[in-house]
Amino acid sequence: MDDSNVKNNNQEVLPKKLTESSFSYYFCEIDWTLSRVLSFVFDFLILLSLIFLSLLIIGFELKEIFEYDGGLSDISTVEMVFIISTIVLLKRYRDCCKQTSINWKDMLTAPILYYGKFIAIASIIISSLAIYDLKEGTTYFNILFIYGQNYIQLLSFIFILLGLYISTPSKKLKIKIDVIPHCKNTEEIIPPEPNKTETENA
Amino acid sequence: MLNKKCLLIITCIACLPTLSIAKPISLVESCVELVNIYESKNSQRLLAAQTTSLSEGLRAGYCLGVLTNSADFEYNCRSDWFRRAEFIATFSQENNRPSERKILKLSCEI
């Protein structure tokens, strides 16, 4: 087949190229940019609201632990276990992040975002319960918040610990020690060669 | 270095009760704690022992004490303490609560 025939065929199949001066070109550019800006704003707002929600609930939970300002006498066994587990998981998370190339921003927000997602799901369920109460005239919502305070707190603790546990960065981001460019002290990475005299004696 | 850090944390935790000023005991909040511990008059809730702190237990005991005392002497109530505690706990959702004496009197009427 001749080259000129192929070129002609391609021109027919491909859509007509928009010239930079045409109205359609500018319309397409504005349309595209606007959709991307709106998408960015929407993502940013969701991110912000999730962070705000989770920080609010974490603050509330901390306040709930020391609810009567009684110091150590306010801490129950479950709360004590939660505090210790949180410290252990935070240390694990920090160690995991240190081994990867994750930036500090993602490192800080990842567990908070996971917790925010859990809270958002729980809020939807609780809201549906409230709506059901309003419709049917029942008092399940009030019963949950009066009699189930300890269980709600327990669930929140589980969400926090689970969020901390699953927010470890991907293994793909793991930094290989032998390719660190700024590593000055190579003695720590490459083990010293055994002494020749020692090997000969052995 | 780690030992110093541990020592500092332990000292801070140990100082917490001395620095804190405990809130006054409210009957409604105490009865909320009581119904969070007890499922019915004779049985406790699941994990009640693990989820209840010393302060919460103290408040639950206060509510139980007030209810039994008022039942015996003040108002001569016939209904059981658990039902009365449940009734009093419902006032925790209200903004304009009546006085504790009034709530106690109302709880006798259920």
What can you see in these coordinates?
The complex is a heterodimer of chains A (202) and B (110). Chain A is 70% helix and 0% strand. Chain A is an all-alpha fold. Chain A has a domain at 51-173. In chain A, α2 (23-65) packs across α4 and α4 runs antiparallel to α6 (149-166). The longest helix of chain A has 43 residues, at 23-65. Chain A is flat. The model of chain A is unreliable at 182-189 (pLDDT under 50). Chain B is mostly helical. In chain B, α2 crosses α4. The interface between A and B is medium-sized, with 24 and 30 residues.
Radius of gyration of chain A: 29 Å
Question: How many helices of chain B?
Answer: 6
Largest sheet of chain B: none
What's the end-to-end separation of chain A, in Å? 75 Å
The greatest inter-chain interface is formed by:
A-B, 24 and 30 residues
Form type of chain A = flat
The number of helical runs of chain A is 7
Count of the separate structural domains of chain B: 1
- Low-confidence stretches of chain B are none
Please provide the count of β strands of chain B: 0
The geometry of chain B reads as elongated
**Which class do the helix and strand fractions of chain B yield?**
mainly alpha
Low-confidence stretches of chain A: 182-189
Average pLDDT number of chain B: 82
